[in-house]
Amino acid sequence: MVLSRALRPIAARSLSTATKSAPAASATPSVGLAPPNAVEDVQVTAEATAARKQEMAKAAKAKVGGKSGWQAFVSGALDVVRPVAAAAWPTLMPIIDAPSQKRVRDAASIEDLRKAAEKRMHAMTYGYLAGGADEEIALRRSVSCYEDVELRHAVLHGVGHGETDLRTNIMGVEADLPFFVTSCAGQRMFHSDGEVATATAAAKHNVAMALSQLTTSTFEDVRGAAPNHAKILQLYVWRDRVLLKEVLDRAKEVGFTGLALTADFSWVGNRERETRTGFTVPPNYSWRQTVDAMKSPAWTYDFMSRVPYGYKAVPDADFPAESLVDFIAQQMKPEFDWKDAEWLCSEWGDTGKVALKGVARGEDAKRAVETGFDTIWVSNHGGRQLESSVAPFDVLPEVRAAVGPDVEVIMDGGVRRGLDVIKALARGADSVACGRAYLYGLAAGGEPGVDKALTILSKDCHLAMGLLGCRTVAELKERAPEILLVNQASARRQGGIFQGGQAGKVLQPCLQ
């Protein structure tokens, strides 16, 4: 879902001089090249790996060497304090974190978890998690769009408590609920337990989980926490095919059965809230950051007592994540195109389903299927990229009409309630990816916070299904045309057909 603001200026420079300013790319085989035989393939791979290690070491050294005297002093002091803080963690952390844990237990909604996350987190990391592009119009629209849709409740439907069955299949993974936790880079930035906490809660609720290529926990640690649930690997459009192949091979060995290519992040959006909150990677330990750290004792103690996180799925990345910001930015490949995507699908092979994440047009959805993608993942990257980008919920009917009823469609964006999930299913999605909803829980309280978020969403879904008189997801989708009402303004945006009944309301057919 999210990456560091520090990528933005670096990526912007590399985009304008893509082939000139990317030493990693020049040191590795071109995306379009295929070694003619196995022997040469091994040799090229070895050379590429060696060059990549040098580039990482160079990037890390430059980042460390570029610190000011004040930054170097504070970093050194933290290195001294960290072992002491870690030793005292079992005693002190439960006391420091008690108010946050109480807020998690008392939360009645995702909004309550958002407020709890804001209170626990450092101001700049909260701004990073909660913010969007520019004036955040796309972010607000992605959340508010669900208000345009109303549902016809049923009476005397005969559905009793415990009779709703929300089980479904998400990219080949059997799940108890029609939503799942989507990928997010750098989760240890929000809470020190990071992706392991997320995986543990996902396993508890038997929901699918997508893991970011820039995970700050190892594949093995996540698999240990959720052996049957963290099955989808999310990739970015990187220029180094050798590196991507190594990641894919490791994912296959660990047991991932699904792959999702995030195609809407090669250009990095303008995130003004991060500028206002002073977000930097690495931390510049400014007076503002220091004061905000003192205001957030639980988050700060977490930060001080744990080893700095790294990108654990990137081969040879044996450096703190903050040291590799430049290297990661140089890997972003804005010129990644359909031919490259075709290569990625073929490389994954018959391991499992492949999704294209970031689709917002029916024509792109059709071409994705023709290219080899099994699943269409409708998303606008959390409203963090193109300002005023269309809300994923609004574009669902167009995408469903373009690919037909048999292609799997996932929707991702703005979900804050289980009712939003139900509306998305009725409008054409097969399942729904949740990002900030569970991340607020993670930031507010680690695994208990994610557990609480998933519990809230699950209860919402079952309640809505009962009130609608639908026992299964299949029944909800079948009856969607008689259940779903869309206001006229929203229907005009999406080409809906006014079918009378109520002034200003449209009966919106969702399944073509």
Characterise this structure.
The protein is α/β, with parallel strands linked by helices. It is 52% helix and 11% strand. The protein contains 23 helices and 13 strands. The strands form 3 sheets. The chain has an 8-stranded parallel beta sheet with strand order 4-11-10-9-8-7-6-5. It has a 3-stranded antiparallel beta sheet with strand order 1-12-13. A hairpin with a 2-residue loop joins β2 (168-170) and β3. The protein is globular, with a radius of gyration of 23 Å. Mean pLDDT is 83; it is low at 1-40 and 496-512. InterPro entries: Aldolase_TIM, Alpha-hydoxy_acid_DH_FMN, FMN-dep_DH, FMN_HAD, FMN_hydac_DH_AS. Keywords: Oxidoreductase. Belongs to the FMN-dependent alpha-hydroxy acid dehydrogenase family.
